[in-house]
Each structure stands twice: as C-alpha cells, then as structure tokens.
Design brief:
This protein has about 170 residues and is an alpha+beta fold. It has helices at about 1-30, 55-60, 125-130, and strands spanning about 30-35, 50-55, 70, 80-85, 90-95, 105, 110-115, 130-135, 135-145, 150-155. The chain is about 20% helix and about 30% strand. Strands 1, 2, 3, 4, 7, 8, 9 and 10 form an eight-stranded antiparallel sheet that branches. Belongs to the peptidase S26 family. IMP1 subfamily.
Length: about 170
C-alpha cells in the first residue's frame, strides 16, 4: 500500500514538473496574455486593457519601428513597461519633449532601442531614461484581447511624425 501511494505521488510530481516546464517554455518563448496599466500608451492601449504579447520577435531580432513592446523597466527591473519603438540602433531620434521650442536629436547606440509612450505628455520613456538595451525587451504586442469592442490588431502610432528617416 505504501509503495502504491509513493508511486502515485512521484508520478504526480513528475507530471507536474513536466507540464510546468512546458508552460514555462510556452510563456517565455512563445508569448502570453498581459494586462496593461497606466496612461502612457493612451489612446492606443487604455488602462486595464488585456493584450497578447508574442516573444519570438525578440529572439529573432525582428522588432521594428512602430512596434509596441513589453520591456523590463530600466528604472525598476521588477516591473515591465509597455512602449512603442521609435528608433532602432543607428537611427536618429528626437530626444526632446514635443512642447520644447528647440528640438534636440541623438543617435540610438548599437544594441539599443528608443522607446516612447503614445501619450507623450504623460509617459516616462526614453526621453527620461535614454536608450534601452535590446536585451530588456520581453515581447511584442500583437493584438488587443479586451475590451471585446476593441478586439483586434493595434492601430498605428498617433505620433507618427516622431519617426525620423535620415
């Protein structure tokens, strides 16, 4: 009887570890569901919107300008942020706020991206903490899941004029 109970317990633990590893790999490498909070991506993503984030793009270096990404916060590594990619390595970006009279520009260094929120007046982004290392990108947001009336692919940036092509 003891052997039977131990056998069932070890079998259960074995299945738990196996399925736990499969789930970890799926969420780490394929993608997952993310609940967004804060006003920095409004009007594209509202507070408490639920989105799907795929993680394959970051592994294959397929992140492009205009993509919305989930990134480990440069200010707080325990939290993630959601921002739009404005510039890739080597791109010239406007580093000043939209309200600044004199505009300043800089180049994104190798291995980094320039991130900004769609709500430029209420976003802590690369204009505050500078270029972000590519390695901090966790995934790329594909589409919005919730609310259902807004289900689907995300719209283009309302700040498309901030993308510089030099």
């Amino acid at each position: 009887m003891l052997r039977n109970v131990l056998g069932k317990t070890f079998r259960f633990l074995g299945y738990t570890v196996q399925y736990g590893c499969i789930a970890h790999c799926a969420f780490e490498y394929l993608g997952g569901v993310v609940v967004c909070s804060g006003p920095s991506m409004e009007p594209t993503i509202q507070n408490s919107d639920i989105v799907f984030s795929e993680n394959l793009s970051r592994h294959f270096y397929c992140i492009r300008k205009g993509d919305i990404v989930i990134v480990k916060s440069p200010n707080d590594p325990k939290s993630n942020i959601c921002k739009r990619v404005i510039g890739l390595e080597g791109d010239k970006v406007c580093t000043s706020n939209p309200s600044d009279f004199l505009k300043s520009h800089s180049y994104v260094p190798k291995g980094h991206v320039w991130l900004e929120g769609d709500n430029l007046r209420n976003s802590t982004d690369s204009r505050c903490y500078g270029p972000v290392p590519y390695g901090l990108i966790r995934g790329r947001i594909c589409f919005k899941i919730w609310p259902l009336n807004d289900f689907g692919f995300l719209r283009a940036s309302p700040n498309g004029h901030r993308f510089l092509d030099d």
